[in-house]
Amino acid sequence: MNKTKLSKKAFLESKKIIPGGVNSPVRAFKSVNSLPIFIEKGDGAYIYDLDGNKYIDYIGSWGPMILGHANKAVINSIQKVIKKSTSFGAPTLLETKLAKLIKKNFPSMEKMRMTSSGTEATMSAIRLARGYTQRDKIIKFEGCYHGHVDSLLVNAGSGAATFGTPSSPGVPKDLSKHTYALEYNNIKQIEKCFKVNGKNIACVIIEPIAGNMNCILPNQLFLKKIRSLCNKYKSILIFDEVMTGFRVAKGGAQEIYKVKPDITTLGKIVGGGMPVGVFGGSKKYMDLLSPDGPIYHAGTLSGNPVAMTAGIKTLEILSENNFHKNLEKKTARLMMGLKKSAEKHNIGFQISYAGGMFGFFFTNKKKINNFKEVCDCNELIFEKFFKLMLSKGIYFAPSLFEAGFISSRHTMKDIQYTIKAAEESFKEISKKIKFSI
């Protein structure tokens, strides 16, 4: 078992001044009834904690480290630009250069705006959709997370056509009543919602591949139905590709599923590990933003030169031939290896993946389609598996509701070690818990 004395000390100290000891809830390890490890550095596919323990990292800062930690080319580019200043609050050529790189891979984004986070991007995209349509209602899906915007922190009501209710104190009911929260991959439900409320719906926002209820792949007919309903009722379709953009393919999930959204939001990889968000779409929507139009959007640090530089270099590197093809080969090897090992020890286990993004579920179901089915997975076994793997130097997401990520720096040796560690963990779990396939 790894010794984590210094991490424990650091956590207790941080709790004195930072709520919960962390600046984002999942980092606290509460979902796995454990204490978080504090990271000191990263290198390629590995991270190291305060106690000197080394881990194969399958979180990658929740997606952006697609080139691995401390990529030399990215670091060198940052070091050069940072000497000129960390921020100007004024235009630079870097913003235009990054925007052109994004547009090359996301042709649906004719024009775009930079932000400092994915939350800002989705918030701004929804404001733009409401401003364009002059409507208030929006549709989101259970288990899809689009940032901590008030109107998006909503659970489903009692039916498809009912108003949502706040899922966090501090969210006014008057805001949440404008949000319909529906079941992911449920075509009948969204058809009913549009039939009853279509003339009032400003937009549908969705993760085209969900990454915040673990990794859930969409039914392609589901995405196509949403597109057709938005066309029919003149509502805006927003793809939240903050997580999937450049991660599952160069052109994101919209490239894979051949469904074109009206507005796309990006983040994570686009900043090369620095805080960045982007929202963009066709000119007829984007030209409504101030100063050209009446819909307000601003941000002092939007287009920050350091973040733009990191993003430019990252996108240049991952645009090389076969980058995503090679990434998916590694992901597939890891997922199939884990599944085979689990089945060997009679443990119900399902997988999903796309590009360098993956998810696994302790369940007897043949496929996981939505948030409710994720909630039905065996949380106790997940917790035991997570702790066993962490003790063997494998750093998976500390929650069964989070996706995992592979970088270009992960080697087949890393993956093989992970599979071997998993088989040992499954063997130990099978002795203690009856959970047959």
Provide a descriptive summary of the structure in words.
This protein has 437 residues and is an alpha/beta fold. It folds into two domains: 5-70 and 321-432, Aspartate Aminotransferase, domain 1 (Alpha-Beta Complex), CATH 3.90.1150; 72-318, Aspartate Aminotransferase, domain 2. Helices cover 38% and strands 15% of the residues. It has helices spanning 5-14, 72-82, 93-105, 118-133, 173-176, 187-197, 220-233, 252-257, 283-286, 305-318, 323-344, 371-375, 379-391, 412-432; strands spanning 39-43, 46-49, 54-57, 111-115, 137-141, 154-155, 165-166, 179-182, 201-206, 236-240, 263-267, 277-281, 350-354, 357-361, 394-395, 404-405. A seven-stranded mixed sheet has the order 4-12-11-10-9-5-8, with helices on both faces. Strands 1-2-3-15 form a four-stranded mixed sheet. Helix 8 links the parallel strand 10 and strand 11. The radius of gyration is 22 Å and the shape is globular. The model is unreliable at 156-164 (pLDDT under 50).
Gist of the model:
This protein is of the alpha/beta class and 437 residues long. 38% of the residues lie in helices and 15% in strands.
Given the helix and strand composition, which structural class is it? alpha/beta
Order of helical and strand elements:
HEEEHHEHEEEHEHEHEHEEHHHEEHHEEH
Task: Report how far apart the termini are.
Answer: 29 Å
Q: What's the overall average pLDDT, rounded? A: 93
Q: What shape does the CA trace take?
A: globular
As a percent range, the share of strand residues is: 15-25%
Q: Which fold does the CATH topology of the largest domain refer to?
A: Aspartate Aminotransferase, domain 2
| The top level CATH class name of the largest domain | Alpha Beta
Identify the CATH homologous superfamily of the largest domain. Type I PLP-dependent aspartate aminotransferase-like (Major domain)
DSSP strand tally: 16
Helix content: 25-40%
* Total discrete domains: 2
> Helix tally?
14
